[in-house]
Amino acid sequence: MKAIKVIGAGLAGCEAAWQIAQRGILVELCEMKPFRKSPAHHSDNFAELVCSNSLKASRFGSASGMLKQEMRILNSLLLLCADRCSVSAGGALAVNRDDFSAMITEKIRNHPNITVISSEVTDIPDEGICVIATGPLTADVLAENIKAKFGGALSFFDAAAPIVTAQSIDFDNAFYASRYGKGNEDDYINCPLNKEEYERFYQELITAERAPLKDVDVQNPKVYEGCMPIEVMAQRGENTIRFGPMKPVGLTDPKTGHRAWAVLQLRKENNEGTLYNLVGFQTNLKFPEQKRVFSMIPALRNAEFVRYGVMHRNTFINSPQLLNADFSLRENPQLFFAGQITGVEGYMESGASGLIAGINSARLFSGKPLVKFPQETMMGALSGYISDVSVSNFQPMGANIGILPPLEEEIRDKRRKAEKMAERSFAVLETFIDENKI
Question: Pairing between strand 311-316 and 305-307?
């Protein structure tokens, strides 16, 4: 019995391999770890989270929550593991990234239908069914071959935030609270700044030395809006980050009884609460500069950084000109792409594309027609966007309510409107699953 080849054991590749294997089909999962890692990867395990440990909102009546619930309905491996490895994070689903990656790796390696091949793939297979899920940091040789074969690729820069130890945080200048009291009180550590402290911090932030980026304008790199370095965002104006990652609304400093001028939030990295990441502080500052500038925040004056922020290039193909909504290649239906290389943006969006590619590659292998997910679902709306031939200036897209078709009834309240869209999505998805025997 032949096998389907999946290239890349990131979020999309693991989800695709799992969906195929769960349908009784053999999978050859090719992964270059541990022999070679991209600049942003550190662990030998699969499905490594290189940026935030948050998988975004949990509430079904939100774009991110809707997407995750759709994936649960379809027996997603990523959601199975994420729910088991969750750490408290208010209204978000956040995970202990090490436990999450280790659990996925264990399940993939122990699946009887999956064979892991630890080697780097440098070219696109000439025959057989294959899912390319090599991610936005596809290794150089394969990336060049993809560009050459499919008429070039697009790129932007992505960044990760630093992580500090809990014991090094100065709690004389910090307090536990979730914004507006959502979630548990100890979900976030808040680091307030008064106006004078903020202004000093801001000036040092915008003038701090950045790490060099190859072949780009370091002062104005092309970055993805959803993961913008804090120093790049700050250049837009003195109050930009104070109305963004450092917004103080919904938080009252118990020491003063008032709202601070600005607040940095720290979110748990693990259940033990020994590590915290700087929320929204993705950065490309040089490591010594990160230590110097971020330590100007009073609560972090003695902070111990266990990981500094990094910035890296993300590459994606021009999917609207290349892919069908089932993530197969128009010119070769046996070849599927999945993950951020397709231009979906976000951890779970990447996983969802792997889920769709896995289901459809398995159906192709079994002689069944490929399926296009309904537009009323978040998965269907995302796959529709990346395959829309009318999109001329293609840029990465994450889950959002705006890409869903409107409801038949007019609802003014945004929250209720999103909830009704979620209800519609889940009902349509259940019918779709039954009709197509997925």
Answer: unpaired
24 and 139 housed in the same domain: yes
* 294 lies in the same domain as 384: no
Say which range, 14-28, 181-195, 294-308, has the weakest mean pLDDT: 181-195
**Same domain? 104 vs 180:** no
Q: What is the pLDDT of residues 238-248, one digit of tens each?
A: 999 999 999 99
Question: Do 328 and 255 fall within a single domain?
Answer: no
| DSSP one-letter string for 40-51 | T---SSSS---S
Inter-residue contact 64 to 57 (CB < 8 Å): yes
Residue 423 burial by CB count (10 A; 0-12/13-18/19+): exposed, middle or buried?
middle
| The token pair that represents 343 in the structure block | 């231009």
Cα gap 175→11, rounded to integer Å: 34
Alpha carbon distance, N-terminus to C-terminus of the chain: 22
Domain limit, last residue, from 262, 292, 309: 309
CA pair distance 306, 97, nearest whole angstrom:
14
Which amino acid belongs to residue 48? Answer: E
For the whole model, what pTM was predicted? 0.76
Residue 216 has pLDDT above 60, yes or no: no
Residues 319 and 303 in one domain: no
> Which amino acid is it at 409?
E
Total structural domains in the chain?
Answer: 2
Determine the 3-state secondary structure of 247 from DSSP: coil
The two structure tokens encoding residue 368: 């069944």
- My answer on whether 206 and 300 are in the same domain is yes
The residue range of the domain holding 408 is 4-156+314-436
Closest by CA to 379, choosing from 82, 70, 75, 92, is 70
Which residue, among 7, 21, 11, has the nearest Cα to 128 in the 3D structure? 7
Task: Give the domain-ending residue among 261, 288, 309.
Answer: 309
Beta-carbon contacts of 372 under 8 Å, excluding residues fewer than 6 positions away, are 324, 325, 326, 380, 383
CB atoms closer than 10 angstroms to residue 310: 21
The tokens describing 329, both together, are 């290649």
Residue 337 belongs to domain with CATH number: 3.50.50.60
Cα distance between residue 14 and residue 279, in whole Å: 27
